[in-house]
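Private note to self, pasted from the team thread so I don't lose it. Backbone tokens:
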């Protein structure tokens, strides 16, 4: 993972934490689980992770443009594909796992883009080595994993402007 990818990961985590999305998930958890687990997992959840939860994954970054801004500074515009996957299960609530996942994906789109009434909170976000230019919603898809578990995936393309060593 490049420094720019690590910066994007840090930016996603920072925006997630400041947005309050986690509380939408932990409303379904016990107090003991809130203290022990995190909502936003990297690549996969641990063991007996409580439902619902979210997995964040990033694919490769692609350099789409290079430029110089001085004699010793070079910049790159990069596109990075990423996705959030919400896993929901019947938790004894009135809502079905599909409804829980749909409601939580809606909260994610309010913050990261793709919501029908809310502007995303990520465009222009400063990183330690550049900034995020824009987050572009790509698509979302609901998948029934088994009788009790539903997952909903939302994909984004993140465009960033990063400084690279000359």
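Design output:
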């Amino acid at each position: 993972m490049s420094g720019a990818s690590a910066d994007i990961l840090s930016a996603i985590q920072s925006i997630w934490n400041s947005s309050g999305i986690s509380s939408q998930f932990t409303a379904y958890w016990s107090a003991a689980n809130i203290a022990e687990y995190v909502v936003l997992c990297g690549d996969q959840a641990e063991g007996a992770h409580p439902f619902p939860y979210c997995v964040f994954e990033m694919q490769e970054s692609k350099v789409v443009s290079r430029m110089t801004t001085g004699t010793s500074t070079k910049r790159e515009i990069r596109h990075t594909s990423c996705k959030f996957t919400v896993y929901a299960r019947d938790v004894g609530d009135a809502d079905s796992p599909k409804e829980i996942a749909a409601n939580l994906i809606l909260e994610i789109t309010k913050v990261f883009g793709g919501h029908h009434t809310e502007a995303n909170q990520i465009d222009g976000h400063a990183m330690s080595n550049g900034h995020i230019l824009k987050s572009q919603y790509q698509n979302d898809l609901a998948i029934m994993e088994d009788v009790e578990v539903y997952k909903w995936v939302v994909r984004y393309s993140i465009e960033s402007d990063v400084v690279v060593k000359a």
